[in-house]
Design a protein that fits this description.
CATH superfamily of the largest domain: ATP-grasp fold, B domain
Number of domains: 3
Number of strands: 16
Mean pLDDT: 94
CATH architecture of the largest domain: 2-Layer Sandwich
Radius of gyration: 21 Å
Distance between the termini: 35 Å
Largest sheet: 6 strands, antiparallel
Shape: globular
Order of helices and strands: EHEHEHEHHEHHEHEEEHEEEEHEEHHE
Structural class: alpha/beta
Low-confidence stretches: none
Helix content: 25-40%
Strand content: 25-35%
Length: 344
């Protein structure tokens, strides 16, 4: 009998991972379920069963997930949206016969989800360099943190301590915007004056990480882990635009192994670094498949399927990726199959 796998709300690139799971080397068969609040999501197009997700507060959303798994008899749930909150209810999913394919338990995911806690947890890793940073939640703390970083000679940026991708990321400029800025492309830059004005409008705000701006090459290291260590680590370098290089970067591979010893994440996860003056500094860790993982799969490693295979209890050997690959991606057409379920 085919195992039923459910992907909840996730990014469009995950449609690649559905195909990789289907085209696995062991010829195992799976039935793919996908949900998303947007009816034209590519994930709904590639699934065997698709359904629209409701927009709910997180506590209600978790209950929706439990009921979805119970009703559809889901064998394996691979969460993206709300994964930390969902992990807190692992026992409830287990009770109804659904396995949660998560890279860690609630305690571990809760550390990784908060950049302040993450950086604190990784301070003992001697080989790892962290950016200069502070966690702030008042305008007074923000101004003090900004001044410390400036005194060290850094350009300064900030982002939410808890957040995904580039949401909320801003680079601070000392000078206020002028008329010429209205004719320039939209950027993620903001003046110091404007930041302070906005932050001063409330007594406290959700925690921000104020840190040195890292301006070198950015790398994503896509990892496959188990309880014994890393089975694969593929450094994916942002070269320019959409150009990526799978680089044989021993330094980043060794750092990824060192991080995994402190934070033993399982299955698919992603570690991001940016070089500053030839020193790789940690940016963040994503405890899930990354949006660009399909590029790293050009190394010959089927990351999504091997994570699933490991989760199912099958042996997965140490992987030997093919590196030194330069790649890009282009737009590809997809015909949207309308379904009565999604009618307005």
């Amino acid at each position: 009998m085919k195992k039923r796998i459910w992907f909840n709300r996730t990014f469009s690139a995950a449609s690649h991972y559905v195909e990789m799971i289907r085209k696995n080397s062991d010829h195992l068969k799976f039935e793919i379920y996908a949900t998303h609040p947007k009816k034209h999501s590519p994930m709904l197009q590639v699934a065997d069963y698709a359904e629209l997700e409701p927009i709910l507060p997180l506590d209600q959303y978790v209950q929706y997930c439990i009921e979805f798994c119970r009703y559809h008899q889901i064998d394996i749930f691979i969460p993206h949206f709300g994964l930390t909150e969902i992990s807190l209810h692992a026992a409830e999913f287990e009770k109804i016969g659904t396995g949660l394919l998560l890279s860690g338990d609630y305690k571990l995911l809760n550390i990784v989800a908060d950049k302040g806690r993450l950086f604190e947890a990784l301070k003992p890793v001697e080989s790892l360099t962290l950016p200069d940073y502070s966690i702030v939640s008042t305008v007074t703390e923000f101004e003090a943190a900004y001044q410390v970083l400036k005194d060290k000679g850094h350009r300064v940026c900030f982002k939410p301590a808890q957040g995904e991708g580039g949401a909320g990321f801003r680079i601070i400029e000392e000078s206020p915007k002028n008329i010429n800025s209205l004719f320039e492309p939209v950027t993620n830059r903001i003046s110091l004056e404007e930041v302070i004005r906005i932050l001063s409008s409330v007594d406290r705000f959700e925690s921000l990480m104020v840190m040195e701006l890292l301006e070198g090459h950015e790398y994503s290291v896509d990892c496959l882990g188990n309880k014994d260590g890393l089975l694969a680590a593929v450094p994916r370098k942002k070269v320019e635009g959409r150009i990526r290089e799978l680089e044989e970067n021993t330094e980043l591979i060794q750092l990824s192994h060192a991080i995994h010893k402190v934070l033993p994440l399982m299955y698919n996860f992603n570690i991001q670094f940016i070089y500053q003056n030839n020193v790789p500094k940690l940016l963040e860790i994503n405890p899930r498949t990354s949006g660009g993982l399909y590029i790293s799969c050009l190394s010959g490693i089927n990351f999504p399927y091997l994570a699933l295979k490991s989760f199912l209890g099958h042996e997965v050997s140490l992987q030997q990726p093919k590196l030194g690959i330069l790649a890009t991606h282009i737009e590809k057409e997809m015909i949207i199959k309308e379904h009565s379920l999604f009618s307005e």
